[in-house]
Protein backbone atom coordinates (compact mmCIF):
# COMPACT_ATOMS: atom_id res chain seq x y z
CA UNK A 1 0.00 0.00 0.00
CA UNK A 2 1.69 3.18 -1.15
CA UNK A 3 1.89 6.23 1.07
CA UNK A 4 1.20 9.71 -0.28
CA UNK A 5 2.63 12.96 0.95
CA UNK A 6 1.08 16.31 0.07
CA UNK A 7 3.46 18.46 -1.91
CA UNK A 8 1.91 21.67 -3.15
CA UNK A 9 -1.35 21.16 -5.04
CA UNK A 10 -0.40 17.59 -5.99
CA UNK A 11 0.45 14.44 -4.09
CA UNK A 12 3.43 12.21 -4.83
CA UNK A 13 3.60 8.54 -3.96
CA UNK A 14 6.32 7.32 -1.61
CA UNK A 15 7.73 3.82 -1.90
CA UNK A 16 5.75 1.41 0.29
CA UNK A 17 7.28 0.19 3.51
CA UNK A 18 8.93 -3.20 3.21
CA UNK A 19 9.03 -6.05 5.70
CA UNK A 20 12.52 -4.98 6.78
CA UNK A 21 11.30 -1.47 7.62
CA UNK A 22 8.77 -2.84 10.09
CA UNK A 23 11.35 -5.15 11.65
CA UNK A 24 13.86 -2.33 12.11
CA UNK A 25 11.20 -0.10 13.63
CA UNK A 26 10.24 -2.87 16.04
CA UNK A 27 13.89 -3.41 17.01
CA UNK A 28 14.29 0.29 17.76
CA UNK A 29 11.17 0.24 19.92
CA UNK A 30 12.18 -2.93 21.76
CA UNK A 31 15.55 -1.39 22.58
CA UNK A 32 13.65 1.26 24.55
CA UNK A 33 10.74 -0.70 26.03
CA UNK A 34 9.45 -4.19 26.77
CA UNK A 35 7.73 -6.63 24.46
CA UNK A 36 4.31 -5.89 25.92
CA UNK A 37 4.65 -2.25 24.84
CA UNK A 38 5.12 -3.19 21.18
CA UNK A 39 1.85 -2.52 19.37
CA UNK A 40 1.11 -2.46 15.66
CA UNK A 41 -0.81 0.81 15.86
CA UNK A 42 2.04 2.46 17.78
CA UNK A 43 4.57 1.32 15.18
CA UNK A 44 2.34 2.49 12.35
CA UNK A 45 2.05 5.90 13.98
CA UNK A 46 5.82 6.16 14.38
CA UNK A 47 6.31 5.20 10.74
CA UNK A 48 3.57 7.52 9.50
CA UNK A 49 1.48 4.83 7.81
CA UNK A 50 -1.77 2.98 8.38
CA UNK A 51 -1.94 -0.48 9.91
CA UNK A 52 -3.00 -1.79 6.52
CA UNK A 53 0.63 -1.45 5.38
CA UNK A 54 1.67 -3.78 8.20
CA UNK A 55 -0.66 -6.57 7.11
CA UNK A 56 0.92 -6.70 3.66
CA UNK A 57 3.95 -8.27 5.35
CA UNK A 58 2.81 -9.90 8.61
CA UNK A 59 -0.12 -12.01 9.75
CA UNK A 60 -0.20 -10.18 13.06
CA UNK A 61 1.79 -8.85 15.99
CA UNK A 62 3.12 -12.28 16.95
CA UNK A 63 4.38 -12.83 13.42
CA UNK A 64 6.34 -9.56 13.67
CA UNK A 65 7.77 -10.48 17.07
CA UNK A 66 9.08 -13.80 15.79
CA UNK A 67 10.51 -12.08 12.71
CA UNK A 68 12.35 -9.74 15.08
CA UNK A 69 13.59 -12.72 17.08
CA UNK A 70 14.89 -14.36 13.91
CA UNK A 71 16.65 -11.11 12.94
CA UNK A 72 18.35 -11.05 16.34
CA UNK A 73 19.44 -14.66 15.87
CA UNK A 74 21.06 -13.82 12.54
CA UNK A 75 22.79 -10.71 13.89
CA UNK A 76 24.22 -12.52 16.90
CA UNK A 77 25.50 -15.51 14.93
CA UNK A 78 26.17 -15.48 11.19
CA UNK A 79 26.40 -11.69 10.83
CA UNK A 80 28.79 -11.28 13.76
CA UNK A 81 30.90 -14.15 12.49
CA UNK A 82 31.06 -12.54 9.04
CA UNK A 83 32.20 -9.25 10.60
CA UNK A 84 34.97 -11.04 12.47
CA UNK A 85 36.32 -12.73 9.36
CA UNK A 86 35.74 -9.95 6.82
CA UNK A 87 39.30 -8.74 7.26
CA UNK A 88 42.61 -10.50 7.62
CA UNK A 89 44.23 -10.58 11.03
CA UNK A 90 45.65 -12.74 13.76
CA UNK A 91 43.42 -14.83 16.05
CA UNK A 92 43.95 -12.27 18.82
CA UNK A 93 42.90 -9.47 16.50
CA UNK A 94 39.73 -11.40 15.76
CA UNK A 95 39.01 -11.74 19.47
CA UNK A 96 39.64 -8.02 19.93
CA UNK A 97 37.21 -7.34 17.08
CA UNK A 98 34.59 -9.47 18.81
CA UNK A 99 34.99 -7.37 21.96
CA UNK A 100 34.77 -4.12 20.01
CA UNK A 101 31.53 -5.20 18.34
CA UNK A 102 29.91 -5.77 21.72
CA UNK A 103 31.28 -2.77 23.59
CA UNK A 104 29.74 0.14 21.73
CA UNK A 105 26.90 2.62 22.07
CA UNK A 106 24.64 0.85 19.58
CA UNK A 107 21.44 -0.56 21.03
CA UNK A 108 21.36 -3.67 18.83
CA UNK A 109 24.86 -5.03 19.49
CA UNK A 110 25.47 -8.21 21.54
CA UNK A 111 24.38 -7.58 25.10
CA UNK A 112 22.73 -4.25 24.21
CA UNK A 113 19.27 -3.01 25.24
CA UNK A 114 17.57 -4.86 22.38
CA UNK A 115 19.04 -8.17 23.50
CA UNK A 116 18.18 -7.50 27.15
CA UNK A 117 14.53 -6.99 26.14
CA UNK A 118 14.51 -10.30 24.25
CA UNK A 119 16.04 -12.11 27.22
CA UNK A 120 13.35 -10.71 29.47
CA UNK A 121 10.77 -11.97 26.96
CA UNK A 122 12.44 -15.40 27.03
CA UNK A 123 11.81 -15.64 30.78
CA UNK A 124 8.08 -15.81 30.06
CA UNK A 125 7.95 -17.61 26.71
CA UNK A 126 9.42 -21.15 26.39
CA UNK A 127 9.67 -20.88 22.59
CA UNK A 128 11.72 -17.71 22.84
CA UNK A 129 13.83 -19.22 25.61
CA UNK A 130 14.65 -22.15 23.33
CA UNK A 131 15.87 -19.78 20.60
CA UNK A 132 17.95 -17.78 23.08
CA UNK A 133 19.59 -20.94 24.41
CA UNK A 134 20.43 -22.08 20.87
CA UNK A 135 21.89 -18.67 19.98
CA UNK A 136 23.93 -18.60 23.19
CA UNK A 137 25.31 -22.06 22.43
CA UNK A 138 26.35 -20.96 18.94
CA UNK A 139 27.94 -17.77 20.24
CA UNK A 140 29.89 -19.69 22.88
CA UNK A 141 31.02 -22.24 20.30
CA UNK A 142 32.23 -19.44 18.03
CA UNK A 143 34.14 -17.74 20.85
CA UNK A 144 35.67 -21.11 21.76
CA UNK A 145 36.84 -21.50 18.17
CA UNK A 146 38.56 -18.11 18.31
CA UNK A 147 40.24 -18.87 21.65
CA UNK A 148 41.37 -22.23 20.34
CA UNK A 149 42.86 -20.60 17.24
CA UNK A 150 44.58 -18.05 19.49
CA UNK A 151 46.47 -20.88 21.18
CA UNK A 152 44.75 -21.34 24.53
CA UNK A 153 44.93 -24.74 26.15
CA UNK A 154 41.78 -26.78 25.66
CA UNK A 155 41.15 -26.67 29.40
CA UNK A 156 40.87 -22.86 29.21
CA UNK A 157 38.99 -22.54 25.92
CA UNK A 158 35.52 -23.34 27.26
CA UNK A 159 35.99 -21.28 30.40
CA UNK A 160 36.93 -18.17 28.44
CA UNK A 161 34.21 -18.73 25.87
CA UNK A 162 31.59 -18.92 28.63
CA UNK A 163 33.11 -15.89 30.34
CA UNK A 164 33.02 -13.94 27.10
CA UNK A 165 29.25 -14.23 26.73
CA UNK A 166 28.68 -13.47 30.42
CA UNK A 167 30.94 -10.42 30.24
CA UNK A 168 29.33 -9.06 27.07
CA UNK A 169 25.87 -9.23 28.64
CA UNK A 170 26.90 -8.23 32.14
CA UNK A 171 28.95 -5.15 31.29
CA UNK A 172 26.01 -3.68 29.39
CA UNK A 173 23.72 -4.28 32.36
CA UNK A 174 26.01 -2.99 35.11
CA UNK A 175 27.56 0.01 33.36
CA UNK A 176 25.31 2.86 32.29
CA UNK A 177 24.73 3.12 28.55
CA UNK A 178 26.15 6.22 27.02
CA UNK A 179 27.76 7.49 23.85
CA UNK A 180 30.79 8.98 25.60
CA UNK A 181 33.89 7.82 23.74
CA UNK A 182 36.06 7.66 26.86
CA UNK A 183 33.50 5.52 28.67
CA UNK A 184 33.39 3.12 25.74
CA UNK A 185 37.19 2.92 25.77
CA UNK A 186 37.10 2.17 29.49
CA UNK A 187 34.63 -0.66 28.96
CA UNK A 188 36.86 -2.12 26.27
CA UNK A 189 39.89 -1.96 28.58
CA UNK A 190 37.96 -3.82 31.27
CA UNK A 191 36.77 -6.43 28.79
CA UNK A 192 40.22 -6.87 27.23
CA UNK A 193 41.80 -7.36 30.66
CA UNK A 194 39.36 -10.17 31.42
CA UNK A 195 38.80 -11.76 28.00
CA UNK A 196 42.11 -11.52 26.13
CA UNK A 197 44.46 -13.69 28.24
CA UNK A 198 47.57 -13.71 26.04
CA UNK A 199 49.66 -14.67 29.08
CA UNK A 200 47.89 -18.03 29.31
CA UNK A 201 49.14 -19.34 25.97
CA UNK A 202 51.21 -22.43 26.44
CA UNK A 203 50.21 -23.11 30.05
CA UNK A 204 49.51 -26.69 30.92
CA UNK A 205 46.02 -27.68 32.06
Question: Which key phrases capture this entry?
Answer:
64% helix; Tetracycline Repressor, domain 2; mainly alpha; two-stranded antiparallel ribbon; 5% strand; 205 residues; elongated
What does this structure look like?
It is a single chain. Helix 6 (113-122) packs across helix 7. The longest helix has 25 residues, at 61-85. This protein has a two-stranded antiparallel sheet. The chain contains 9 helices and 2 strands. The protein has helices at residues 19-30, 40-47, 51-54, 61-85, 91-102, 113-122, 126-150, 154-174, 181-195, and strands at 3-7, 10-14. It has a domain at 68-200: Tetracycline Repressor, domain 2. The protein has 205 residues and is mainly alpha-helical. The protein is elongated.
Biggest beta sheet attributes: 2 strands, antiparallel
Termini Cα gap: 63 Å
So what's the overall shape? elongated
Across the major sheet, the strand order is 1-2
CATH topology (level 3) name of the domain at 68-200: Tetracycline Repressor, domain 2
CATH-defined architecture of the domain at 68-200: Orthogonal Bundle
Total beta-strand segments: 2
Helix and strand pattern: EEHHHHHHHHH
- By DSSP (H or I, 4+ residues per run), the number of helices equals 9
How much helical structure, as a percent, in the residues? 55-70%
According to CATH, the homologous superfamily of the domain at 68-200 is Tetracycline Repressor, domain 2
The CATH class name of the domain at 68-200 reads Mainly Alpha
From the alpha-carbon coordinates, what is the Rg to the nearest angstrom? 20 Å
Low-confidence stretches: 1-15
Strand content: under 5%
Class by alpha and beta content? mainly alpha
Mean of the pLDDT scores? 85
